[in-house]
């Protein structure tokens, strides 16, 4: 699974009622969360209980990590009876794509924008920004297409970056 998701900073695999990271991922997870590592069978391992996934995932994402989550395809209670346990990556989370569940009494989360920029012909640029916490969508040209001055579009893009402070940018 790790080689298929090499672009991710961490791969967390569900093992029974825990989430486990191995080798380099375990060292990174332990450093980021301040948890212990151990070495069963010559492999570095770090783990935490399944019920803490939401809390630890939010902490990792706030550190800028890209996290792949692999879940068991069988319920944890039946795993001991199975000769092998099949796992599959069910999600890749980044700060811009993860929305944590909110309690009713919690304050509104701060905006987290995912910004997409498209450079068109003659230097015209268009932007699309999505706030993943509120589903607010902003879009439009950064400069009129007829103007054709790339410097004006670049300045408009700088202003947009300052105003939105996006957590992820797609170009």
Structural class assignment:
alpha+beta
Rough outline: elongated
Compute the CA-based radius of gyration.
21 Å
> What oligomeric state do these chains adopt?
single chain
The level of helicity is 10-25%
Strand order in the largest sheet = 3-2-1-4-5
Q: Please trace the helix and strand order, writing H or E for each element.
A: EEHEHEEEEEHE
End-to-end Cα distance: 27 Å
Describe the main β-sheet briefly: 5 strands, mixed
Please count the beta strands (DSSP E, at least 2 residues each). Answer: 9
Number of continuous helical runs: 3
In terms of DSSP E residues, the strand content is 25-35%
Mean pLDDT: 80
Low-confidence stretches: none
Structural account:
With 171 residues, the protein is of the alpha+beta class. Helix content is 21%, strand content 30%. The protein contains 3 helices and 9 strands. A 5-stranded mixed sheet has the order 3-2-1-4-5. The longest helix has 15 residues. The two termini are 27 Å apart. The model has no long low-confidence stretch (mean pLDDT 80).
Set out the fold topology.
Blueprint: E1 10-15, E2 18-22, H1 23-33, E3 45-49, H2 53-62, E4 67-72, E5 87-93, E6 113-119, E7 125-131, E8 136-141, H3 150-164, E9 168-170
Parallel strand pairs: 1-4, 6-9
Antiparallel strand pairs: 1-2, 2-3, 4-5, 6-7, 7-8
């Amino acid at each position: 699974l790790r080689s298929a998701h090499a672009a991710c900073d961490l791969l967390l695999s569900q093992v029974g009622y825990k989430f486990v990271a191995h080798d380099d991922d375990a060292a990174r997870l332990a450093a980021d969360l301040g948890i212990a590592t151990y070495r069963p069978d010559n492999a570095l391992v770090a783990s935490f209980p399944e019920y803490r996934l939401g809390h630890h995932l939010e902490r990792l994402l706030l550190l800028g990590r890209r996290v792949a989550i692999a879940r068991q395809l069988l319920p944890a209670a039946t795993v001991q009876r199975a000769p092998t346990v099949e796992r599959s990556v069910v999600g890749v989370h980044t700060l811009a794509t993860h929305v944590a569940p909110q309690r009713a009494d919690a304050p509104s989360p701060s905006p987290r924008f995912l910004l997409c920029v498209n450079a068109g012909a003659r230097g015209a640029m268009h932007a699309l920004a999505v706030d993943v916490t509120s589903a607010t969508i902003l879009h439009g040209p950064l400069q009129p297409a007829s103007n054709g001055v790339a410097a004006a579009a670049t300045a408009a893009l700088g202003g947009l970056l300052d105003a939105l402070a996006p957590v992820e940018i797609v170009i």
